[in-house]
Amino acid sequence: LAGKKPQKGGKGGGRVEINSSVGSEVTDIETVRGKMQKALDALKEEYVKNLSLRTSVGSLDSISVQTVNGRFPLNHLGQIVMKSPQMYHVNMVGAPQEIPSVLQAISQSGMNLNPIQEGNVIKVPIPKVTKEHRENLAKKAKAGCNKTKEQIRDIRNQAMKEAKKAKATVSEDTVRLVEKQIQQLTDDFNGNAEKILEAKSKELLK
């Protein structure tokens, strides 16, 4: 009887051990791993900075403001101070000309904030967390995870192209082993992204 064809994604033969010394002439597995890890780290950072239920100085810091001189994080333009858990102030005395841009950036940050200008100070009331806001953040979390998985897939596809090019000078068995390692990394990092999304969704919707 003819043997069954192995399943795509390296799942047919069980887990593939990642060994960067094998097939190093085909592609650098550690470089592939590093790129995927960078994409995953960016997702974690996005979740912490922009998808938290409680607004913090750190989350306001990361708001990007478009000015005539380029794009800057909010904390480069003004001093952010927590007056109370329900109220933050952004002191714009050092760059009062940027107040309109800062007001717009805070309003459009997706953090459900409605800033109020009083002279050179921008007051930022922190709203109560509603069910609608939780669900909106959960949707953004899923979109962020999908974007990360797309980045991981792009990294995989590029590495696979490099591996296929090496078939002219390297044995087919070596290339196939490298391809399996690339797919294993892809599966691992996609799985990690899903776990991070699951944890964030539980946090947001509990």
UniProtKB/TrEMBL annotation:
Any one GO BP annotation for this protein: translation
Domain Ribosome recycling factor: 43-205
Keywords: Coiled coil, Cytoplasm, Mitochondrion, Protein biosynthesis, Transit peptide
Signal sequence coordinates: none
Segments for region (Disordered): 1-20
Name of the protein this chain belongs to: Ribosome-recycling factor, mitochondrial
Subcellular location: Mitochondrion
Family: Belongs to the RRF family.
Coiled-coil residue windows: 138-169
Keyword Ubl conjugation assigned: no
One Gene Ontology CC term in the entry: mitochondrion
Pfam families tied to this protein: RRF
